Amino acid sequence: MFKRICGTIATLAIGGLAGSELQKRWANSRIFFKNAEAAMPLLPTRPTEIMKYGFPSNTNLKMRENYVLSYDTRCRNAHWVFEHLTRDLVKVDENSANREEHNFQEDGSIPKPFRATNQDFFRSGFDRGHLAAAANHRANKHWMADTFYLSNISPQHPQLNRNAWNNLEKYTRSLAYHYDNVYVCTGPLYLPRRENDGKLYVTYQVLEPNHVAVPTHFFKVILCERQGHFDLKSYMMPNEPVDPKIPLKSFMVPVEVIERASGLLMFSGLDTGKLRKINSGKETKL
């Protein structure tokens, strides 16, 4: 599995750019997108707060009460889902919403030909995997209900969804207890693989009847803010069984790899001079 991940990273890091050069280009690209976003209209207060440091893209945006989503009508998955977490939003108390009270449902805001349905997942062998995790939104039952729209769901291997990916979600929530603000971008990836003929191909399964794409990988990019300084953590996991005993840091990849693979630009509105750490620091043991 690690050979596949390393091979994917090598494939995506086209051009063999050195780390310092990647960082330079990352900073320069953010200046371009920051200027482009300046012309975008102001959004309601909560989405504005969630997207404080820029939109990865601006296609088919869905503004939920407590997260923002960009929807891919071709793959019937999200391009990305964005969340903003704080200690008060993720803490558990007697008023916390209960996920057992909510059911997965079609997203009526998406034209019917491009929607995922529960029928697609029935006996598919895949879990309905949350991108914006339900447990991230337990401060309000309406917020949690929003996470059960199938536009926020991707087909995910059960042994990934219930183990290693779940550990990553728990770790992400734990960060909200150590930072003032935690901004999270999550999404699917469809990565190339070199076949026996030596050529690269992108192949993925689709679920019937609506041809919902099964991602080959998932990513999560986390921006942690404390007193005006930022730490960035970026992860990529294959959509297959992953041993939950493998440390989460083993799945860290340069954020540029995720950007190249997804066609998205992460946190374009962030002043990179305020970045303190990138993919460093000890992971919390779950």
TrEMBL record:
| Segments forming domain ENPP1-3/EXOG-like endonuclease/phosphodiesterase | 64-273
Keywords annotated in UniProt:
Endonuclease, Hydrolase, Magnesium, Metal-binding, Nuclease
Cofactor requirement? Mg(2+)
Q: Which Pfam families match?
A: Endonuclease_NS
Per the UniProt entry, the Enzyme Commission number(s) are: 3.1.30.-
Question: Belongs to which family?
Answer: Belongs to the DNA/RNA non-specific endonuclease family.
Q: What is the protein named?
A: Endonuclease
Ranges for domain DNA/RNA non-specific endonuclease/pyrophosphatase/phosphodiesterase: 63-273
Q: Tell whether tRNA processing is among the UniProt keywords.
A: no
Q: Which InterPro entries match?
A: DNA/RNA_endonuclease_AS, DNA/RNA_non-sp_Endonuclease_sf, Endo_G_ENPP1-like_dom, ENPP1-3/EXOG-like_nuc-like, His-Me_finger_sf, Non-specific_endonuclease
